[in-house]
Amino acid sequence: MKQIQEELDKLGIGQLFGRYPFLNGYLSTQGLELNGEETDTLPTFLKKLDPDEIEDKALDAESIITGTATYISQMLEFLGDGKERSVTEITLYPGTNKDGEPENFDKLTFQRGEIVCIVGPTGSGKSRLLGDIEWMAQKDTPTRRRLLVNGDVPDPKWRFSSSDKLVAQLSQNMNFVMDLTVEEFIRLHADSRMVNNAEEVVQNIIREANALAGEQFAPNTAITSLSGGQSRALMIADTAILSRSLIVLIDEIENAGIDRKKALKLLLNEDKIVLMATHDPMLALMGDRRIVIKNGGIHRVIETNDRERAILSNIEALDFKVQSMRHMLRQGESLEHFEF
Amino acid sequence: MNLVTVSGPPSSGKTAIILKTAATLMQKGVKVGVVKFDCLSTDDDLLYEKAGIPVRKGISGALCPDHYFVSNIEEVAQWGVKEGFDLLISESAGLCNRCSPYIKEIGAICVIDNLSGINTPKKIGPMLKSADIVVITKGDIVSQAEREVFASRVNSVNPKATIMHVNGLTGQGAYELGTLMYQEEVQVDTVKGRELRFPMPSALCSYCLGETRIGDEYQMGNVRKINLER
Ligand SMILES: Nc1nc2c(ncn2[C@@H]2O[C@H](COP(=O)(O)OP(=O)(O)OP(=O)(O)O)[C@@H](O)[C@H]2O)c(=O)[nH]1
Ligand SMILES: Nc1ncnc2c1ncn2[C@@H]1O[C@H](COP(=O)(O)OP(=O)(O)OP(=O)(O)O)[C@@H](O)[C@H]1O
Ligand SMILES: [Mg+2]
Ligand SMILES: [Mg+2]
């Protein structure tokens, strides 16, 4: 930070842009019009601005300079090797249930590439558990739970940083509001994540999304006109491939015409920890473990055993039949000779 | 007493997040009061009352809302001290994007919603640029990708702020916001002598003084003309 501050005082704006290409975007957001050839340093440039312009654009020189330094250091960290990549596990330590009684476990460790399901009645505290994980709770939530990352107290930046959040959440609601095509939208997201091979990533996401969705969509489809299933598929592919967050929280993937098994696989391929609140037997058994929540506390943790896995293959076979029937109905065929 | 100023575009969710956050603080025994500043009318006071939060409202009416805010904030602070609040929250709405009702060393929170469009952060000005905490609401109705894009836009306008996602309907994130909003060790008993973070525009023209007629001959004072030449 100190070194960046010195650079700002010494280097001309043109030189700064050469060193930090992302600065142009930042400074134009701040209302400065620059062509990248300026030889003045930023402080000098700001001093030379017309006072009327400063008032009109509501500029504040001091805050632009400190903001620039902060922005550069954030971006360098973001573009760097990415510390979050080295996260291998998170550990949850018990708190108390709604009656203040201690939870009944020593600790729970989640590894990368693992699916953990969360089950429990309405109002039992499933979302609160997801909230504790998102916040990296340190005994400072109503449940008094505590989370460690790789065995250490997590860096507080994970709580707030917009770019380095540890947790991504797939919302129940899948509406898009931006007025863009699929391709434009994913590119916008890729740009905000500063990926190098944006074009390739965009095409990859669209391909994966189409593999999940029942009905295909083209890159130039408006995102607002995607069906529920297509939106979900796009969202999951996007989160799996583009989001840097290591943990993905899912509040029930509804059965909106997407291949849920493939969707989970895609998330796991990217080596994420998937935590999913669900009551669907097929999804619940797909997890390696499931956490049962009662009265706000973790009541027990059940490992999916072989017997349950056997049931899962039966459910999957059944699900496959249901899907085929759905497909036939869609195609206008009769089920008269369907083998059941 | 702690004092924080919360502002943001109309209907961005200010009242919703204040209600949810206040509820979590009150549960911890913190005494919370609210003052609502608005331009023409507001029913927010009814919502606060219903939640058991003492509230006062100030309607700026024919005055510039930001000038009205600065002219009254000390009286409001004194009300809060007298009532014995631990935390006094001021909610301001309907300000022009050029202004911000933030005071140096007094907590400043800007509430902005995911639905407002990705170019909005850039347009808002000091209200967003000089906030300490930016709360983004309505994340439930947009996708993870849109939330990420929007937050990164906010970050590029105000890299120094703490950016938080809070859901005004379910209260997700409100507990967490509460831990930032209320700090026991902070004591503000008066705002007299403190300074605004950002000067307000220096406009004073005939229309400020009640002129309604249109045309050059009625325009006096600080007037600037649009440039229609290319
Ligand atoms: N879906 C959703 N709706 C929200 C959220 N936060 C607020 N709302 C809704 O948005 C509307 C406006 O919220 P308010 O809290 O009244 O907004 P405000 O900023 O206080 O509005 P003014 O004081 O009138 O400027 C209400 O209908 C809220 O229920 C949110 O996180 N998600
Ligand atoms: N251990 C706890 N101690 C105190 N309060 C708790 C605890 N766990 C949950 N709560 C509170 O209980 C309420 C309901 O919890 P939550 O919203 O997480 O339930 P849910 O299981 O997600 O319900 P639904 O199935 O309806 O989505 C919330 O207000 C939450 O803060
Ligand atoms: Mg829930
Ligand atoms: Mg309001």
Description:
The complex is a heterodimer of chains A (340) and B (230). Chain A is globular, with a radius of gyration of 25 Å. In chain A, the strands form two sheets. In chain A, strands 5-6-7-3-8-9 form a six-stranded mixed beta sheet, with helices on both faces. Chain A has 340 residues and is of the alpha/beta class. The longest helix of chain A is centred in the last third of the chain and has 25 residues, at 306-330. Chain A has helices at residues 2-10, 13-19, 23-29, 42-48, 51-56, 61-79, 126-135, 157-160, 182-192, 198-212, 228-242, 260-269, 281-286, 306-330; strands spanning 89-93, 108-111, 115-119, 146-149, 167-170, 247-251, 273-277, 289-294, 297-303. Chain A starts with a helix and ends in a 10-residue tail after the last helix. Chain A folds into three domains: 2-79, no CATH class; 85-304, Rossmann fold (3-Layer(aba) Sandwich), CATH 3.40.50.300; 314-340, no CATH class. The model of chain A has no long low-confidence stretch (mean pLDDT 85). Chain B is of the alpha/beta class. Chain B has a single domain, classed as P-loop containing nucleotide triphosphate hydrolases (Rossmann fold, 3-Layer(aba) Sandwich), CATH 3.40.50. Chain B contains seven helices and seven strands. Chain B has a seven-stranded parallel beta sheet with strand order 3-2-4-1-5-6-7, with helices on both faces. In chain B, β2, α2 and β3 (55-59) form a beta-alpha-beta unit. In chain B, α1 (14-27) packs across α7 (174-181). The interface between A and B is large, with 47 and 43 residues. Bound molecules: guanosine-5'-triphosphate, adenosine-5'-triphosphate and magnesium ion (2 copies). Adenosine-5'-triphosphate (ATP) is lined by residues 96-98, 120, 122-128, 142-143, 296-297 of chain A.
Query: What characteristic shape of chain B results from the CA principal axes?
Result: globular
What is the third-level CATH name, the topology of the largest domain in chain A? Rossmann fold
Largest interface: A-B, 47 and 43 residues
CATH class category of the largest domain in chain A: Alpha Beta
Beta-strand residue percentage of chain B: 15-25%
Q: What helical percentage do the residues of chain A reach? A: 40-55%
Mean pLDDT of chain B: 88
Number of helices of chain B: 7
Low-confidence stretches of chain A: none
Major sheet description of chain B: 7 strands, parallel
Bound molecules: guanosine-5'-triphosphate, adenosine-5'-triphosphate, magnesium ion
E-strand count of chain B? 7
- Structural class label of chain B: alpha/beta
CATH class of chain B: Alpha Beta
Strand ordering within the main sheet of chain A: 5-6-7-3-8-9
CATH architecture of the largest domain in chain A: 3-Layer(aba) Sandwich
Radius of gyration of chain B equals: 19 Å
Pattern of helices and strands of chain A: HHHHHHEEEHEHEHHHEHEHEEH
The total of helices of chain A stands at 14
Count of spatially separate domains of chain A: 3
